[in-house]
Design brief:
The complex is a heterodimer. By secondary structure, chain A is of the alpha+beta class. Chain A has helices at 9-19, 94-107, 114-122, 169-178, 188-203, 212-215, 219-223, 227-231, 240-244, 288-306, 318-322, 329-336, and strands spanning 2-5, 21-28, 31-36, 62-71, 74-79, 87-92, 123-128, 153-158, 161-166, 183-184, 251-257, 262-268. Chain A has two domains: 2-207, no CATH class; 212-336, no CATH class. The relative contact order of chain A is 0.15. By secondary structure, chain B is α/β, with parallel strands linked by helices. Chain B folds into two domains: 8-97, Translation factors (Elongation Factor Tu (Ef-tu), domain 3, Beta Barrel); 112-233, Nucleotide-binding domain of ferredoxin-NADP reductase (FNR) module (Rossmann fold, 3-Layer(aba) Sandwich). In chain B, strand 13 (249-250) and strand 14 form a beta hairpin. Chain B is globular, with a radius of gyration of 18 Å. Classes of the chains: A alpha+beta, B alpha/beta. The interface between A and B is large, with 49 and 42 residues.
Chain lengths: 340, 274
C-alpha cells in the first residue's frame, strides 16, 4: 500500500494525466460530475456522489457509431474509430464500480458491443472507498463493500492522507507510472476506518429494508401486484431516474444529418418515455403505470432472472435524492414486499 | 473491429407492388450476392440513413440462393421512404436476428397449418416456400390466408401460380367483405378456420393482426388444438436487434433475440405486453 498527503493530491492527478486522460469528480457551476482533469480544476473527492453516475466512462451519454455518405442512390459507410488510448476514471464509489460489472453482463455478452468493449479494455478504474456514507446509501443490500470497492486501484481517504492500493494488473501498471509521487504506507489507518464505516453502514436506515422476498419471488406475481397502481400515480415520467442511474442500460440509435452526411449515434434512452416502444401501429406500454412497472420489474425481476439472481441496482441512492416527486426504488421494494 | 450494429450495404434489384400499400423488395449486396444466410422466421434490420432503421421479417426462403426479399407495408416514416425506392437504390442491411420457426426440428414430418392475415403472410411465406422446396420432409400443408379485400392479398400471383399447384398443399383464401369479381370465400379468418375441418394433429403457424390471432387461437382451442401446437411471431419496436437496447423487452425475454418466434404456451408465461 502507498499513500500521499491530500495537500499534494494534485501532484498525483498531474502524474496520471501526464500519461493517460484522467476523469474525476470536478465541480463546475453548482454540479459535481466526472470531467476531464485540468490544472486548477475544482476536484471534489469529498463528494459522496456525482450527479450522473460514472457509467458515462464506458457507456457515454451519446456516441457516434458510424457515418454515411449519401450520393444519388449510393451509400458509403464509415465506422467510427473505437477508443484506443488508456484513460483513468478516478474516484469511482463502490456502488458505481459494481455497476460496471452489471453493464458488462449486457454489453460484453454475445454479441459483444465493440464500442463498450474498447472502453472497458482501455479504461482504468480507480475506485474510492466511502468514509461518509449517507442515509440514501444501501449498497450493502447488494453485497457491495463500500469500504473495499471493486476496481483496478482502490484509494481510501483517511484524515488528510490518501491511501493507494493496486488490485489488478492494470492497477499495478498505473501504480508504476505514478510511484514517484507516492510513499510506502502501513495499512492500519485504512483498516481502522473500514471498521468504523462498516459500523455506520449497519446503522443506515435502509439497512433494515427487506429484499429477501425478491430472491424467490414469482415474476408474474410481482408483475400483477396491485401495488403498481398506487406507486406509479405520482410519477411524472420525466426519466430523471434513468439518466442518473448507474445501471440503466437502454439506448436509442438515431441518425443526424450534418449537412455533409449522416451521423448515426447511440444515446441513453428511458423506458419511462412513451415513444420508447412506439411503432407505426402504437405502443405496447400505453400507460405510465406500465412504463413505471417496466423499469422496476427490469431491475428487480427480469434482470436477476437472466443474470444468476443479480439485481439491476447497486444502492447508490441517486434516485432517492434526485426524483422530483420522491419516488424511488426503495419505496417500490418496500411496497411490493408488503411494507408500506 | 466488427460490430453487429454496423450494417452492410444492400442494393434493391426489384420492386413489386403487391397491394395498394404493400411492396416486395428484392435485396442483394453490391456484388450481387445474398447479404447473409438466414432461416425462416428470422429478421433483418433495414435502414435508409437519415430516416431510420427498423426490423423486418425476411419473406424469402433460405432455399432461395440468389437474393432476399422483404414484403413491407407502408405504415410509418421509414416504410414511407422505403416505398419511394426505385431499382438500384442502396439501403443498409444487418442480420439475421432472432430464432427461426423450428423447421428442422419440431416441424419436421408434421402436418402444417399456416394461418395469416394481411401483411402477416410476410414472415410465413419464408416458411411456406422452405417447406414447399423440401416437400418430402413435411406432411400435408394447409394455408389459410385472409385480407380486407382481394386487392390486399400479398403474393397473390405466387399463391395461385405456385402454392396451389404444389402437391399436398391446400390454399384457402378469404376476404372480409363481398367484392365484385371475387368468387372465393368471404368472411373473417377466425371463422373460416373453424369451418375448414382442419386436422387437429397439425402444427399451426399463425401471423396477422393481434385481433385476428386472438380469435383464431380461441377457435383453434375450441377445435381441440393445444397451445403447444401453435407458433406465432411477435413484433415490437427494436433498435439493436441483439437484446441490449431494451426496447423489445417483455418479462425476462427480448423479442429480438429470444423470439420473435414463440409458441403460445411460452407466450403464456410472459406479461401481456406485446
Amino acid at each position: 500500500m502507498f499513500k500521499i498527503s491530500m495537500n499534494e493530491a494534485d501532484k498525483l492527478f498531474k502524474a496520471i494525466a501526464e500519461s493517460d486522460t484522467l476523469y474525476l469528480p470536478i465541480e463546475k457551476g453548482d454540479q459535481i460530475e466526472f470531467y476531464e482533469y485540468h490544472e486548477g480544476a475544482n476536484v471534489r473527492l469529498d463528494a459522496l456522489h456525482t450527479v450522473k453516475s460514472a457509467k458515462d466512462a464506458f457507456l457515454p451519454n451519446c456516441e457516434t457509431m458510424m457515418e454515411f455518405k449519401m450520393e444519388g442512390k449510393n451509400i458509403e459507410i464509415k465506422e467510427a474509430d473505437r477508443i484506443a488510448e488508456e484513460f483513468v476514471v478516478f474516484g469511482v464509489r463502490a456502488c458505481d464500480a459494481r455497476s460496471f460489472a452489471i453493464l458488462d453482463k449486457v454489453y460484453l455478452s454475445d454479441p459483444v458491443d465493440s464500442f463498450y468493449a474498447a472502453r472497458r479494455e482501455h479504461g482504468i478504474v480507480v475506485s474510492m472507498a466511502c468514509n461518509r456514507p449517507e442515509e440514501t446509501c444501501f449498497c450493502n443490500k447488494f453485497d457491495i463493500d463500500a469500504t473495499n470497492p471493486e476496481g483496478d486501484v482502490v484509494v481510501w481517504i483517511v484524515g488528510d492522507e490518501l491511501f493507494w492500493e493496486a488490485k489488478t494488473e492494470k492497477g499495478t501498471a498505473l501504480t508504476e507510472k505514478v510511484k514517484s509521487v507516492l510513499t510506502d504506507a502501513d495499512s492500519e489507518p485504512v483498516e481502522k476506518q473500514q471498521k468504523e464505516v462498516k459500523a455506520i453502514m449497519e446503522k443506515l436506515p435502509l439497512n433494515s429494508m427487506d429484499m429477501e422476498y425478491l430472491k424467490d419471488a414469482d415474476m408474474m406475481e410481482l408483475f400483477n401486484s396491485p401495488k403498481w397502481n398506487e406507486l406509479y400515480q405520482s410519477c411524472l415520467g420525466c426519466g430523471t431516474c434513468t439518466f442518473i442511474c448507474p445501471t440503466c442500460q437502454c439506448y436509442d440509435i438515431r441518425d443526424y444529418d450534418t449537412g455533409h452526411g449522416i451521423v448515426r449515434y447511440r444515446c441513453w434512452d428511458s423506458c419511462m418515455y412513451k415513444d420508447f416502444t412506439m411503432m407505426a401501429h402504437g405502443t405496447n406500454r400505453k400507460t405510465q403505470m406500465e412504463r413505471f412497472r417496466q423499469r422496476f420489474m427490469h431491475k428487480l425481476s427480469y434482470f436477476p432472472i437472466n443474470n444468476d439472481g443479480e439485481f439491476g441496482c447497486v444502492g447508490c441512492g441517486r434516485c432517492i435524492s434526485k426524483c422530483p416527486i420522491s419516488m424511488n426504488i426503495t419505496k417500490v421494494i418496500k411496497a411490493l414486499g408488503g411494507d408500506n | 473491429m466488427n460490430d453487429v450494429l454496423i450494417p452492410k450495404i444492400g442494393v434493391v434489384t426489384d420492386v413489386r407492388q403487391d397491394t395498394p400499400d404493400v411492396k416486395t423488395f428484392r435485396v442483394v449486396t453490391p456484388d450481387g450476392k445474398k447479404a447473409f444466410e438466414h432461416m425462416p422466421g428470422q429478421c433483418a434490420m433495414l435502414s435508409i440513413p437519415g430516416v431510420g432503421e427498423a426490423m423486418f421479417s425476411i419473406t424469402s426462403s433460405p432455399t432461395n440462393t440468389e437474393f432476399m426479399e422483404f414484403s413491407i407495408k407502408k405504415c410509418g416514416c421509414l416504410t414511407d421512404w422505403l416505398h419511394q425506392m426505385e431499382v438500384g437504390q442502396m439501403i443498409t442491411i444487418r442480420g439475421p436476428y432472432g430464432n427461426p420457426f423450428p423447421v428442422d426440428t419440431e416441424l419436421k414430418g408434421k402436418n402444417l397449418i399456416f394461418i395469416a392475415g394481411g401483411i402477416g403472410l410476410a414472415p410465413l411465406r419464408s416458411v411456406i416456400n422452405y417447406c414447399r422446396d423440401k416437400r418430402s420432409e413435411y406432411g400435408n400443408i394447409d394455408i389459410v390466408y385472409g385480407s380486407r379485400s382481394a386487392d390486399d392479398l400479398v403474393d397473390y400471383q405466387e399463391i395461385i401460380d405456385e402454392w396451389e399447384k404444389t402437391e399436398g398443399v391446400n390454399v384457402y383464401l378469404t376476404i372480409d367483405r363481398e367484392q365484385e369479381g371475387w368468387d372465393g370465400h368471404v368472411g373473417f379468418v377466425p371463422n373460416y378456420v373453424k369451418e375448414l375441418n382442419l386436422s387437429v394433429d397439425s402444427t399451426v403457424l399463425i401471423c396477422g393482426p393481434p385481433i385476428m390471432i386472438k380469435f383464431t387461437l380461441a377457435g383453434l382451442q375450441e377445435l381441440g388444438f393445444k397451445k403447444e401446437q401453435v407458433y406465432t411471431t411477435l413484433e415490437l419496436r427494436m433498435k439493436c436487434g441483439v437484446g441490449k437496447c431494451g426496447r423489445c423487452n417483455v418479462g425476462s425475454k427480448y423479442v429480438c433475440k429470444d423470439g420473435p418466434v414463440f409458441r403460445f404456451d411460452q407466450i403464456d408465461e410472459l406479461p401481456d405486453e406485446y
